[in-house]
Design a protein that fits this description.
192 residues; alpha+beta; 2 helices; 36% strand
Length: 192
């Protein structure tokens, strides 16, 4: 008789608890910014990574943060249409190394002298590798549906090598070292 009264109550309680967990899971997934519960995704230098519109990441072992703010323009030729020009998509990203230091830069998918797909920020080089989804003539892309793929590396010229020359210490940029090595190799070619 006790089970006849308590079993339905326990069953309802278990159902309510399961429903709460399912709803909490749905709320976390609906956030979609990758920053749920205060955690931020960490990405690596020299490895491609993707960001959804509104998402922010930090570089592992670095102070750099990157946020995909918006697609400012998407005039790319739809996949199912023949166009004279391939078009361009302009992606606005926010960069920061501290809370006070924040700068927005625009990268482009189009390839021309005026459309830049790569930018430098505080010793880092950021390259736009892709933007999806690709337009279709019969589909509208929502602002939050975009996903950008980026590659971040340290600027080569910013990497320095210290050399000791007698008692003076000099720093040479890697590009200068490369030029010296090229000249040395040319001289070796002419040695008897």
């Amino acid at each position: 008789m006790i089970c006849a009264l308590t079993c339905p109550l326990i069953s309802r309680l278990i159902s309510s608890i399961i429903t709460c967990f399912v709803l909490l899971g749905c709320l976390g997934a609906a956030g979609g910014n990758g920053n749920a519960a205060g955690t931020m995704q960490a990405v690596r230098l020299n490895r491609p990574f993707s960001l959804r519109a509104g998402q922010e990441v930090t570089l592992r072992g670095e102070r750099l943060r990157i946020k995909f703010e918006a697609v400012e323009e998407d005039s790319r030729c739809p996949a199912n249409v023949t166009c004279v020009w391939a078009g361009n998509a302009a992606v606005r990203l926010a960069f920061s190394t501290s809370h006070r230091d924040r700068k927005s830069l625009t990268l482009n998918t189009g390839k021309s002298a005026t459309l830049v797909g790569e930018r430098q920020y505080r010793g880092y080089k950021v390259r736009l590798l892709g933007l999806s989804p690709y337009p279709q003539s019969d589909q509208k892309i929502g602002a939050r549906d975009y996903v950008v793929t980026l590659l971040v590396s340290k600027e080569r010229a910013a990497q320095t090598i210290g050399l000791l020359s007698g008692t003076t210490h000099r720093e040479l940029h890697v590009a200068d070292i490369d030029r010296l090595e090229q000249h040395t190799n040319r001289l070796r070619h002419f040695e008897p």
